[in-house]
Give the backbone structure.
Amino acid sequence: MFSRLNPYLSFPGNTREAMEFYRSVFGGNLTLDTFGQYGAAEDSPDADKIMHSVLETDSGFTLMGADVPSDQEHKPGNNIGVSVSGDDVEALRGYWAKLAEGATVLVPLEKQMWGDEFGMCIDRFGIQWLVDIGLPAA
Protein backbone atom coordinates (compact mmCIF):
# COMPACT_ATOMS: atom_id res chain seq x y z
CA MET A 1 0.00 0.00 0.00
CA PHE A 2 1.07 3.57 -0.56
CA SER A 3 -0.12 7.11 -0.17
CA ARG A 4 0.59 10.08 -2.36
CA LEU A 5 0.23 13.80 -2.12
CA ASN A 6 -0.64 15.86 -5.18
CA PRO A 7 -1.81 19.41 -5.86
CA TYR A 8 -5.53 19.98 -6.35
CA LEU A 9 -6.28 23.32 -7.98
CA SER A 10 -9.58 25.23 -7.93
CA PHE A 11 -10.72 27.40 -10.82
CA PRO A 12 -13.61 29.85 -11.37
CA GLY A 13 -15.09 27.95 -14.35
CA ASN A 14 -12.12 27.44 -16.66
CA THR A 15 -10.75 24.14 -15.37
CA ARG A 16 -11.09 22.44 -18.77
CA GLU A 17 -8.98 25.15 -20.43
CA ALA A 18 -6.41 25.18 -17.61
CA MET A 19 -5.99 21.41 -17.43
CA GLU A 20 -5.72 21.10 -21.21
CA PHE A 21 -3.02 23.76 -21.06
CA TYR A 22 -1.15 21.80 -18.37
CA ARG A 23 -1.44 18.67 -20.52
CA SER A 24 0.19 20.66 -23.37
CA VAL A 25 3.02 21.55 -20.96
CA PHE A 26 3.62 18.19 -19.28
CA GLY A 27 1.98 15.65 -21.61
CA GLY A 28 0.11 12.70 -20.18
CA ASN A 29 -3.46 11.51 -19.87
CA LEU A 30 -6.20 13.89 -18.80
CA THR A 31 -9.55 12.83 -17.35
CA LEU A 32 -12.32 15.43 -17.04
CA ASP A 33 -15.62 14.70 -15.27
CA THR A 34 -18.47 17.21 -15.10
CA PHE A 35 -21.01 17.79 -12.37
CA GLY A 36 -23.65 16.72 -14.92
CA GLN A 37 -22.02 13.31 -15.29
CA TYR A 38 -22.52 12.81 -11.57
CA GLY A 39 -26.14 13.84 -11.32
CA ALA A 40 -26.36 17.63 -11.52
CA ALA A 41 -29.55 18.66 -13.30
CA GLU A 42 -29.14 19.58 -16.97
CA ASP A 43 -30.39 23.10 -16.26
CA SER A 44 -27.97 23.53 -13.34
CA PRO A 45 -25.40 26.31 -13.82
CA ASP A 46 -22.80 23.70 -12.84
CA ALA A 47 -23.84 20.85 -15.16
CA ASP A 48 -21.02 21.48 -17.65
CA LYS A 49 -18.45 22.59 -15.09
CA ILE A 50 -15.62 20.24 -14.19
CA MET A 51 -16.25 18.46 -10.90
CA HIS A 52 -12.98 16.52 -10.97
CA SER A 53 -10.01 16.33 -13.30
CA VAL A 54 -6.77 14.37 -13.15
CA LEU A 55 -3.66 14.77 -15.26
CA GLU A 56 -1.29 11.79 -14.96
CA THR A 57 2.02 12.23 -16.80
CA ASP A 58 4.66 9.82 -17.99
CA SER A 59 7.09 11.59 -15.64
CA GLY A 60 5.01 10.53 -12.64
CA PHE A 61 3.34 13.90 -12.03
CA THR A 62 -0.28 14.02 -10.92
CA LEU A 63 -2.18 17.30 -11.05
CA MET A 64 -5.86 17.56 -10.11
CA GLY A 65 -8.35 20.38 -10.52
CA ALA A 66 -12.01 21.38 -10.41
CA ASP A 67 -14.34 24.30 -11.00
CA VAL A 68 -15.72 25.95 -7.89
CA PRO A 69 -19.49 25.28 -7.79
CA SER A 70 -21.73 28.30 -8.39
CA ASP A 71 -22.90 28.33 -4.76
CA GLN A 72 -19.32 28.79 -3.51
CA GLU A 73 -16.89 31.67 -3.81
CA HIS A 74 -13.61 31.27 -5.68
CA LYS A 75 -10.94 32.78 -3.44
CA PRO A 76 -7.54 32.64 -5.09
CA GLY A 77 -4.68 33.37 -2.75
CA ASN A 78 -0.96 33.41 -2.54
CA ASN A 79 -0.63 30.54 -0.11
CA ILE A 80 0.17 27.78 -2.61
CA GLY A 81 2.57 27.19 -5.43
CA VAL A 82 3.32 24.14 -7.52
CA SER A 83 6.99 23.14 -7.65
CA VAL A 84 8.54 21.10 -10.45
CA SER A 85 12.15 20.11 -9.90
CA GLY A 86 14.79 17.63 -10.95
CA ASP A 87 17.86 17.31 -13.13
CA ASP A 88 16.31 16.71 -16.56
CA VAL A 89 17.47 20.07 -17.88
CA GLU A 90 15.78 19.82 -21.28
CA ALA A 91 12.39 18.76 -19.92
CA LEU A 92 12.36 21.32 -17.11
CA ARG A 93 13.41 24.19 -19.39
CA GLY A 94 10.63 23.10 -21.75
CA TYR A 95 8.05 23.15 -18.94
CA TRP A 96 9.25 26.60 -17.91
CA ALA A 97 9.05 27.98 -21.45
CA LYS A 98 5.42 26.87 -21.78
CA LEU A 99 4.34 27.89 -18.27
CA ALA A 100 5.92 31.34 -18.67
CA GLU A 101 4.00 32.11 -21.89
CA GLY A 102 1.46 34.77 -20.97
CA ALA A 103 2.54 34.52 -17.32
CA THR A 104 3.78 37.06 -14.82
CA VAL A 105 7.41 36.09 -14.31
CA LEU A 106 8.39 36.74 -10.70
CA VAL A 107 11.89 35.26 -10.99
CA PRO A 108 13.39 34.59 -14.42
CA LEU A 109 14.72 31.07 -14.98
CA GLU A 110 18.43 31.57 -14.35
CA LYS A 111 21.28 30.35 -12.19
CA GLN A 112 20.76 31.18 -8.52
CA MET A 113 23.09 31.62 -5.55
CA TRP A 114 22.54 27.99 -4.49
CA GLY A 115 23.80 26.75 -7.87
CA ASP A 116 20.54 25.60 -9.50
CA GLU A 117 18.60 27.23 -12.28
CA PHE A 118 15.36 28.49 -10.79
CA GLY A 119 12.37 30.45 -12.01
CA MET A 120 8.99 31.41 -10.59
CA CYS A 121 5.90 32.66 -12.40
CA ILE A 122 2.16 33.08 -12.01
CA ASP A 123 0.55 31.50 -15.05
CA ARG A 124 -2.40 32.89 -16.99
CA PHE A 125 -4.76 30.94 -14.70
CA GLY A 126 -3.39 32.54 -11.52
CA ILE A 127 -1.36 29.51 -10.40
CA GLN A 128 2.15 30.06 -9.05
CA TRP A 129 4.79 27.71 -10.48
CA LEU A 130 8.34 27.17 -9.22
CA VAL A 131 10.78 25.39 -11.52
CA ASP A 132 14.15 24.28 -10.08
CA ILE A 133 16.78 22.58 -12.23
CA GLY A 134 19.49 20.91 -10.19
CA LEU A 135 22.59 21.31 -12.32
CA PRO A 136 25.63 19.07 -11.97
CA ALA A 137 28.58 20.64 -10.15
CA ALA A 138 31.14 22.18 -12.53
Notes: Residues 81-133 form a domain with the 2,3-Dihydroxybiphenyl 1,2-Dioxygenase; domain 1 fold (CATH 3.10.180.10). The two ends are 40 Å apart (CA to CA).
